[in-house]
Amino acid sequence: MSADSAKAKHAGTRISTAAGSEVAIRVRELTKVFNVYRHPADLVLEVITRRPRHQRYTALEGLSLDVPRGQVLGILGRNGAGKSTLLKLLAGTLTPTSGTIEIAGRVTAILELGTGFHPDYTGRENILMGGLCLGMTRREIEAKIDQIIAFSELEDFIDAEFRTYSSGMQARLTFSTATAVDPDVLIVDEALAVGDARFQLKCFEHMTRLRDAGKTILLVTHDENAVTRFCDRALIVEHGRILVDDHPKTAVAAYLELMFGGTAQRQDDQMRNPCVDPGHSARRFGNQEARLLEYGLEDESGARVKIAQSGKKYSLFLRARAKAKVEGWSAGFTIKDARGLVMWGITTTLQGMTPQTLEPDDLIEARVDLTMWLASGDYFVNLGLGYEVRDEMIDFIDDALHFKVVGPHGIFDASLVNLDPDLRIEVLQQADTS
């Protein structure tokens, strides 16, 4: 966690607390260069000999960024891309080499689990110490400590030493203390990834309340669903620069392309697939050791469809031909909603299947029968072939299919799924009106 960003000056940067600005964060030409030494003694030898014994590593280079007040910004990128360096500079825990940073208001950052907490202190003592580091007064902390403990759900462990906490418990106490500050800008760097699912939901609900209150949130995560579900905008950082700055769904698609390799190309041909709307454009990438020939969504009669009835049975399929010998491959399908949130997905690997090695010119089909338990709305299908154990695609199409689900009736229009409800009411005791 970082300290409150009350007016502080660093070489090459300015962090201000100007109120009333519509821009919460303004970054201009931000650069961070690290000196990397092969051995600890090289630093001492460099000082003595006055000869450089280090290599320079540029983590960020000339990065500029504006974040409006009240926006939730997702930040994606591969390991080593510069995401965490950017957040540490914004939080004030690192000093930039050059460039300027302006932040309007109080900043709270959750950068790493337990940062600022002492392992030999109890949870209660660490709340006090962490709160002071965040700029709270002792009186403020004491007024909020019961609220912090209750949110963390660690009442039974709060007087145990912090080092005895599991990683999930550390995440709870870190988040609960940091957000008690009521920040204007909240920065979260993967710290919630280790918490249990219920607590993660609780944290996101709390961050939603902060967003609704006009707070600005920066979220670094590898969870694509978190970006598409929670963020208003998303960046991809690559080699210390902003590679993509766009709508979350678009940024996530570009991130998948970046992660899984291969050269992306526009998939504008219909691939004998009437489910693709005219003008619909998907993105395709992979090493092309096998190539998709055909894919689609079919009803029980085998007819291709682009409108599905909720609760009815359908099949998703793909056919591909090997161009080379392909070992250790997997086939899969994913259905997403219009925002890009993954609603469902399956692969041969997840099903415990081990497809046989493909020889050149082998033709294969992958097919999954399913009941369309989705509620009304527009949905998109990602599909393709990849490898079981490495992050590389063979032939993968993002947004390959666009289809619409109609029905069911009698449930909320905002429902994401149809749970085939059977609602009953029974009067268990009749009031005596005599």
CATH architecture of the largest domain: 3-Layer(aba) Sandwich
For the biggest sheet, the summary is:
7 strands, mixed
User: Regarding quaternary structure, how should these chains be classified?
Assistant: single chain
Give the CA-CA distance, first to last residue: 67 Å
The backbone outline, from C-alpha atoms, is: globular
Strand content: 35-45%
The helix-strand sequence is: EEEHEEHEEHHHEHEHEEHEEEEEEEEEE
Computed CA radius of gyration, to the nearest angstrom:
26 Å
- Please count the beta strands (DSSP E, at least 2 residues each): 21
Contiguous runs where pLDDT drops below 50 for at least 5 residues: 1-19, 266-270, 274-279
CATH homologous superfamily title of the largest domain: P-loop containing nucleotide triphosphate hydrolases
User: How many domain regions?
Assistant: 2
Structural class: alpha+beta
CATH level 1 class label of the largest domain? Alpha Beta
Helix content: 10-25%
* Number of distinct helices: 8
CATH topological fold name of the largest domain:
Rossmann fold
Rounded mean pLDDT is 84
Task: Give a quick rundown of the structure.
The protein is α+β, with helices and mostly antiparallel strands and 434 residues long. It is built from eight helices and 21 strands. Strands 12, 13, 15, 17, 18, 20 and 21 form a seven-stranded mixed beta sheet that branches. It has a six-stranded mixed beta sheet with strand order 7-8-9-5-10-11, sandwiched between helices. Strands 4-3-6 form a three-stranded antiparallel beta sheet.
